[in-house]
Automatic annotation (TrEMBL):
This is Sporulation protein YabP. Pfam families: YabP. It comes from Paenibacillus forsythiae. InterPro entries: Spore_YabP, Spore_YabP/YqfC, YabP_sf. The lineage of its organism: Bacteria, Bacillati, Bacillota, Bacilli, Bacillales.
Amino acid sequence: MIEPGKNVKQHDLHMRGRKAVDLTGVQNVESFDSEEFKLQTELGILTIRGTNLHIKNLSLENGLLSVEGNVHSLIYLEPGAKGKNKGLLGKLFK
């Protein structure tokens, strides 16, 4: 049960046919190009990878983002993780 006075973080993601993604709870678009979007959401960093990706709609005031293109993956980084995934050598030499 939710305690009164606590802020509830809202973040929803809806994908349609791997061609379109609608998100809520978007706080910031860190970076984007036609192959990767890196977003700060209410629940952490989200990376969307694919081809021919582009923004259909963006409203940071309302926390809304719509992306179209060929979506290959959606990856949430662990809380406290740096903004980039480590490569093979980075994983071997922690």
